[in-house]
Amino acid sequence: MAFARLVLGSRGGLLCTWLPVVGGRGYSSTPYSTDPVTVRVSHGFPVVTIPLPSRRESCDFTLRPFLQSVSDFIHHVKTEDLGVDNVAVYGVGGNRIAGSTGVDLLLREDFDLVVNGYKYRVEVPQDLKYPLDGEASLSDVRNMIHKLYTQLNIDTHQLGKERELKGKLESVRSELAPLDAQSMAIGKQSKGRSNMAIWGGMAFMSLQFGFFARLTWWEYSWDIMEPVTYFATYATSMAMFAYFVLTRQDFAYPVTEERTFLHNFYRTSNSQKFDIDRYNHLKDTASRLEGELKRLHDPLQLNLPTPAPDHVN
Fold this sequence. Notes:
The chain is an alpha+beta fold.
């Protein structure tokens, strides 16, 4: 099957020529063009030389395996020559190759390239044909790229990241310094009040002991003071249970001391307008930045050999 095309003759007249069109199995019935299409390697990449119909000249198209597809190749050809209406790629058996096919798969064997109805046989050199283990080749390429990136860019990236973290940490520390001084002053004051409460409880228990001893052996007898001491002990148990009801914590002396300290700290902070939430946020930020800096200096991050563990004989 063919279609007629009108072209301008050498003397200004119109000539009618017949060009083949698609029929049967793709372009299998279309004769091959005499213009060659070659494939070679330049700078590590396959280069396909194609004669462009409008310019009457050959053009080199550099392909990037594993990164480009047949659609990208066709798009580059159409973009280079606006006179190209249609481009298609066919296998040797006559089946059309899909645009989603990778260039690495295309270069595994010879193929036919059809440009504006002209068919070109593209013979791929044997040393350029990619092996069937494409996944292994892709893995090798990725490993090579990773090694190149590690050797060329990781030092610059780590230095930049370290400089950024140190700048942020210095800013946080400068804002945290006056708050640290104020926190230490408030903590010292709260600790003194907590100690005063502890020693006050000790003094109260000592005075109670002496007062009951005086009443028992000098003023009254044990028969009279026994109920008094019982109720005093029971009142102390009630006070401890009331502490649990209010705080939901056992009346343990270390816990009570810490609670008293925190109560005095928050009360003093409110009176001195000390922003505890801001202080805690800055402390957490400084701790996080220090952890990131420590992780950045890890031998595994710097690609340094880790020290061998000591073997105990």
